C-alpha cells in the first residue's frame, strides 16, 4: 500500500509551515496534468486561491485547519468557470458553470481549493468506471494487468489512490462512491440524501442521489464531511466500541458469488472488533434480502429516474455518441413497466420501516463488493460481461441506496494477488454522525 500523506497529516504541515499552500496546489496540478484519464479539466483560479490561502496563514488568520488544502471534484458537480461534462461528449460544448455548487461554496468557505474536475462513468451510470471518451483512470497497483477503477466516481478515487490529492468528492446513486473506494483500498462515505445541499450537483436519479468524500482514512472523510457542510473544525471523536452493536448479514456471506478472500478479510475485521469489546451478531437480515429481491424483480428506481432525465439525450441527434454500454443500460430502463415506479416507491417505504424494526440502532455489516477490481481488458472486450459484472458489482450497495442508509466503505485487507477488499458499515437514514463516529472507532481498532 502507498504511504501517501493523509489530509489530516497535510493539515498539520500546513499549520506548522512545513508545507506551503502554493507548493501543495502547484504540485497537485502538475502531477495531475501528467496523469492519464483521471482529470477532465483543471480549475484555472486554483493557484490564485492558494496564494490567498498562504497570505491568510502568514497573517495567522486561516479559515480553518483545511485552509489551503487541494481537492478533486467529480465532474457532476459545478465549479464556477469550469464546464460540467458529466463524463459525456454530448456535454462538451455546454457553457461553463456560472457559480459553484453549494457544496463547493461550503468547502471554499473553509479555505479548501478545488484543483480539477475528475473523470467518471458517463452520466454517472455505471459501477465500473470505464469511460471511452476521456480514457479510463487506473490505479497504480503492482498487479500484472490494469483493473477497473470502480464507478462512477472513478477519477476521484484514482486521484486519491495515486496520491495526486489527499481528498476528493463524488456522488453516489447506487454505489458510486463506495465501489471505487472498495476497489482502490480507500474509505468512501455515502451520506443520507438530505445531508448536503445538492444545488449545482447534476442529477442522475433525484430520489437516490447523494454526495460524499473519498479519502485514505475515516478521519479524513469526517473532516471532508464537515467541510462539505461548511464546518471548519468538525468533531472527530470516536464512539466507544463497547457500546456499538454490529449485525453481520450471514446470508450474504454464504453466497457462492462472493470471493473467499472478501469473506476472510471481513471476518478478520469483525474478530478484531470483538476483541476490542464490540458486540457482533451474525444472522440473516430479512429486510436486506427483501430489498435485494424487490430490486431484482421490480427494477431499479435509479434506472427509471435516469431514463426520464436522459431520454431526450439518448433519443436525440447525439445519442449515438454516448458510451454504448451506458446507452444500452438506459434503453433497458425505457422498457420498465410504467406502473413499476409507484410499486417500487410503496415497497421502498415499507422496506425502510422493516429495516428500522429489524436493525434498530445496530450497524449493518456486509462486504462492499463481492469481488476485487476486475480486469479492465476483459470488460472493454465484452459488453455482455460488462453488463453482468456491473450488476454484480453494485448488488450489495444498491440496497443501501434504495433505503437511503448512509454507508462507509473501509479497506478490510487484500486478496492473494494483493488487491484491496472492503467492508461496508451502514445505519438507518439520517444517523450519519453516529456512523462516522463508529467508523472512527473501527479505524482506531484496526490500527492498534
Tell me what the CATH architecture is: Alpha-Beta Complex
The arrangement of helices and strands along the chain is: HHEHEHEHEHEEHEHHEHHHHEHHHEEH
Instruction: Give the termini distance in whole angstroms.
Output: 17 Å
Strand order of the largest sheet: 1-3-2-4-6-5-10-11-9-7-8
Q: Please indicate the percent range of residues in DSSP E strands (runs of 2 or more).
A: 5-15%
CATH fold label: Amidase signature (AS) enzymes
Number of strands: 11
The tally of structural domains comes to 1
CATH superfamily: Amidase signature (AS) domain
Rg (C-alpha, Å) = 21 Å
| Low-confidence region ranges | none
How many H/I helices? 17
Task: Please outline the major beta sheet.
Answer: 11 strands, mixed
Shape: globular
Pick out its properties.
Amidase signature (AS) enzymes, single chain, 448 residues, 17 helices, alpha/beta, 14% strand, 11-stranded mixed β-sheet
Which helices and strands, and how do they pair?
Layout: H1 7-16, H2 21-34, E1 39-42, H3 46-58, E2 70-74, H4 102-109, E3 113-118, H5 154-161, E4 167-172, H6 178-183, E5 187-190, E6 210-215, H7 218-228, E7 245-249, H8 250-253, H9 260-275, E8 279-283, H10 286-298, H11 301-314, H12 324-334, H13 340-359, E9 363-367, H14 376-381, H15 383-394, H16 398-402, E10 407-414, E11 420-426, H17 432-447
Parallel strand pairs: 2-3, 2-4, 7-8, 7-9
Antiparallel strand pairs: 1-3, 4-6, 5-6, 5-10, 9-11, 10-11
Amino acid at each position: 500500500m502507498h504511504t501517501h500523506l493523509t489530509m489530516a497529516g497535510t493539515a498539520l504541515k500546513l499549520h506548522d509551515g512545513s508545507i506551503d499552500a502554493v507548493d501543495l496546489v502547484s504540485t497537485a496540478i502538475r502531477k495531475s496534468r501528467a496523469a492519464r484519464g483521471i482529470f477532465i479539466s483543471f480549475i484555472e483560479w486554483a493557484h490564485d486561491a492558494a496564494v490567498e490561502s498562504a497570505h491568510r496563514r502568514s497573517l495567522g488568520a486561516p479559515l480553518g485547519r483545511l485552509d489551503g488544502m487541494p481537492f478533486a471534484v467529480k465532474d457532476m458537480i459545478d465549479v464556477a468557470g469550469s464546464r460540467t461534462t458529466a463524463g459525456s461528449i454530448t456535454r462538451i460544448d455546454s457553457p461553463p458553470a456560472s457559480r459553484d455548487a453549494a457544496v463547493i461554496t461550503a468547502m471554499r468557505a473553509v479555505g479548501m481549493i478545488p484543483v480539477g474536475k475528475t473523470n467518471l462513468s458517463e452520466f454517472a451510470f455505471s459501477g465500473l468506471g470505464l469511460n471511452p471518451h476521456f480514457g479510463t483512470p487506473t490505479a497504480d497497483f503492482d498487479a500484472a494487468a490494469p483493473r477497473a477503477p470502480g464507478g462512477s466516481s472513478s477519477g476521484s478515487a484514482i486521484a486519491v489512490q495515486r496520491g495526486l490529492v489527499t481528498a476528493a468528492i463524488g456522488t453516489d446513486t447506487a454505489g458510486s462512491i463506495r465501489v471505487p473506494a472498495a476497489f482502490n483500498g480507500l474509505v468512501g462515505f455515502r451520506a443520507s440524501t438530505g445531508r448536503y445541499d445538492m444545488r449545482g450537483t447534476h442529477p442522475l436519479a433525484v430520489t437516490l442521489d447523494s454526495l460524499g468524500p473519498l479519502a485514505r482514512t475515516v478521519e479524513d472523510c469526517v473532516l471532508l464531511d464537515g467541510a462539505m457542510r461548511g464546518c471548519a473544525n468538525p468533531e472527530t471523536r470516536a464512539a466507544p466500541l463497547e457500546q456499538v452493536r454490529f449485525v453481520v448479514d450471514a446470508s450474504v456471506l454464504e453466497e457462492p458469488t462472493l470471493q473467499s478472500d472478501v469473506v476472510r478479510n471481513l471476518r478478520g475485521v469483525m474478530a478484531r472488533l470483538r476483541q476490542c469489546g464490540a458486540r457482533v451478531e451474525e444472522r440473516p437480515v430479512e429486510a436486506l434480502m427483501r430489498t435485494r429481491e424487490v430490486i431484482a424483480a421490480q427494477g431499479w428506481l435509479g434506472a427509471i429516474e435516469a431514463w426520464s432525465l436522459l431520454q431526450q439525450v439518448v433519443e436525440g441527434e447525439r445519442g449515438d455518441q454516448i458510451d454504448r454500454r451506458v446507452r444500452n443500460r438506459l434503453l433497458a430502463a425505457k422498457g420498465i413497466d410504467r406502473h413499476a415506479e409507484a410499486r417500487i416507491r410503496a415497497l421502498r417505504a415499507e422496506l425502510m420501516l422493516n429495516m428500522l424494526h429489524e436493525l434498530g440502532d445496530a450497524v449493518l455489516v456486509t462486504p462492499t463488493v463481492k469481488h476485487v477490481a476486475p480486469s479492465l481488458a476483459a470488460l472493454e472486450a465484452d459488453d455482455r460481461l460488462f453488463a453482468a459484472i456491473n450488476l454484480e458489482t453494485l448488488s450489495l450497495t444498491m440496497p443501501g441506496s434504495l433505503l437511503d442508509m448512509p454507508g462507509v466503505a473501509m479497506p478490510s485487507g487484500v486478496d492473494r494477488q494483493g488487491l484491496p477488499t472492503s467492508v461496508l458499515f451502514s445505519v438507518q437514514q439520517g444517523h450519519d454522525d453516529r456512523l462516522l463516529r463508529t467508523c472512527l472507532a473501527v479505524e482506531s481498532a484496526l490500527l492498534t
